[in-house]
Amino acid sequence: MNKVDFEQFIGSFSFDGRLAQADITGSIAHVQMLVKTRIIKSGEGKKIISGLQSILRDLKKGKNLPKEEDIHYAVEKELIRRIGQLGGKMHTARSRNDQVAMDLRLYLRKETDNCINLIEEFQRILIKKAEENINVIMPGFTHLQPAQPVLVSHHLMAYAWMMQRDKERFYDCRKRMNISPLGSAALAGTSFKIDRHYTARLLGFDGVCENSLDGVSDRDFAVEFTFCVSMLALHLTRFCEEIILWMNPEFAYIKIADKFTSGSSIMPQKRNPDCAEVIRGKSGRIFGDLTALLTIIKALPLTYNRDLQEDKPPVFDACDNIKMCMEVMNEMAAGMKFVKENTLKSMEKGFIAATEIADYLARRGVPFREAHGVVKQIVLYCVKNSKTLNELTLHEYNKFYPKLYPAFKTDIYKYIDLKNIVEMKTSYGATSRRSVEKQINSMKNLLNRKGK
User: Fold this and answer.
1) Could you give the domains of the chain?
2) Is 74 within 8 Å of 17 (Cβ atoms)?
């Protein structure tokens, strides 16, 4: 058995290296504060900041820092190599404990904004597809059984509203994330006369952590971010399942570009919805990241514990995967095309206008529960006689409710016309064209607003 490399075992550089730019950005602000409060001299501060900026420029050019135990030591050691021992003054009045907490907040704040932008891109795609298919009717399902006709645009907008909730969650998460822990030091604060609020303003934070113990140990923002990612992934799985079903020849509602599918190794006729399936699968990985993070933090006493070093891999993994999933989804959805003939043909099955007949009787004064039973008998009659609801004669309809004669008049056929069924659904948020257009306009207004 190979001997364990102890430094590698306790080190975190292999995964926290991605925090380098956030670490340097935070260090520059910290040094500016040290100069302002006269803890270090102005000339010293300028040299330190210049050295940090040179490291940052190199990082942006793709140059890597030499490997150290963690990214904080790596940056500090490189700074000392470039400007001498003066670089060690950068660490005055802070600890790696408040430093890493700040780094992670800065990093996830940026990634939160990235997620919000990807969500908004998806919302715009959904709106565009809804507008393109504003007159296309499809079956709405409950229990995956044909239930009532709806507009394709209405179905798509349901996902746009899910995305809106996801976006609002990220905005709310960002508020709690955007609080600076810097100045909490190791755990108890510092005896140096620092100005924590000044540093927070320089870094774009909304405020500072009120308690230094909480400042270094809090990872609620990371859990909340990963939860927001998980909810977004969950909603993507629902849309992916729709895509997978709609691509199936039994449905054939949509066509997507071949680049998002693959063939079979032995069945040449097949096109498999691989990208949708991979997104659906990656959700499990993201949910696992959330569970891992909760388990790492569970029962940790105050304040910093080395367990918290392991908080970053699951957060980074969830972040990387949701961005990949969103990018693929956005491109796949943008090219998705609905096949109107097939959505209409699908509605010939399942007596999808049955509810409208019950509503028709209810409008004529029949108690709805009684009307429901009458329509059930009508459907059974149609099944037994291989007829559709449109094929029944007025005489046949009226046989089923002799209490009120005629219970059905010639206008019944208007009420079971698919287009009329959809257009009669005028309640707020319903599936009529006018209602859906209101939804689209509301969503556009939200997207045009700053913030939520």
Assistant:
1) 6-92 (1.10.275.10), 97-127+136-341 (1.20.200.10), 346-448 (1.10.40.30)
2) yes
